[in-house]
Amino acid sequence: MYKKSIMVAATLALTPTLANADTVLGLYLGGQYWDTDASGEYVVGSEGYDAGFEDKGQGSYYVALEHPIPLIPNVKIRENSLEFDGGYGRNDFSHRDYIFYYEFFDNDIISFDAGINAMDFDGTVRTPVSTTFGRQDFSVTVPTAYLATRVGIPMTELTLFAEASALSVKDSKVQDAQIGIEYRLVENLAIDLNLHAGYRHSVIELDDVDDIYSDVTFKGPFVGLEVHF
User: Fold this and answer.
1) Number of C-beta neighbours around residue 4 at 10 A
2) Average of pLDDT values for 23-37?
3) The domain 3-228 is classified under which CATH number: 1.10.238, 2.40.128, 3.30.300, 2.40.50?
4) Is the pLDDT of residue 17 over 50?
5) How far apart are CA 134 and CA 125, in angstroms?
6) Mean pLDDT across the stretch 151-171?
7) Per-residue pLDDT at 21
8) Do 50 and 41 form a contact (C-beta atoms < 8 A)?
9) What are phi and psi of 104, to 5 degrees?
10) 171 vs 197: CA distance, rounded Å
11) Mean pLDDT (whole number) for 205-216
């Protein structure tokens, strides 16, 4: 189901028009607390279930490496926790993002990145089985297009940013997007320390993945911290 999308996403990632803008290695470490509102439903086999998720805070953290080597993409790995208690126990839509991207612009005013994000799901949904809770595991890697941009506000320590990963194939749709503002708390030759705040929206619609069909949405505000060496 995802083969054609893999080819399209790979083509996007492997045809940059500009070389990477970094002149030295850059290491980024970041984390995010996401106050998530969860909703939706899922089907296991032929039985449908209202997810009935309880809203709760979720965590996300990442590491990214940027370099000046032409044609080799930069790398970002991000862990996303999406565990929610529902009517039948704990459901898990957590996933790991493997992001490979190129920088097409990179300066204090504007930056633009594009590439692919392999979203690796290894999750669980719960179903009623007699008087106990059943467990249905699923595993899939979904290749998505990846875009990110940053726009600095002149004469301030503020930067607007947006980031999105998305794929839509037949009856499946996976997207994860966020928009926010960054405040540069510390900025010197040794280290940069940035504070983030914004809004994040994620949709996971899986079509017959290990006999699971899902239509779930996670959304809400977030705060975060990033360190750049």
Assistant:
1) 9
2) 91
3) 2.40.128
4) no
5) 8
6) 93
7) 46
8) yes
9) -95, -30
10) 33
11) 88
List beta partners, residue 100. 75, 116
Instruction: Output the six-digit token pair for 141.
Output: 């890697």
**93-99 long-range contacts, Cβ below 8 Å, gap at least 24?**
93/121, 93/123, 93/204, 93/214, 93/216, 93/218, 94/121, 94/122, 94/123, 95/119, 95/120, 95/121, 95/122, 95/123, 96/120, 96/122, 97/62, 97/165, 97/176, 99/64, 99/75, 99/146, 99/165
What is the per-residue pLDDT for 23? 57
Collapsing DSSP to helix, strand or coil, 25 comes out as coil
d(Cα 206, Cα 215) in Å, to the nearest integer? Answer: 7
Domain boundaries, the chain: 3-228
Mean pLDDT, range 24-53, rounded to an integer: 85
pLDDT of residue 133: 66
Report which DSSP code applies to 33.
E
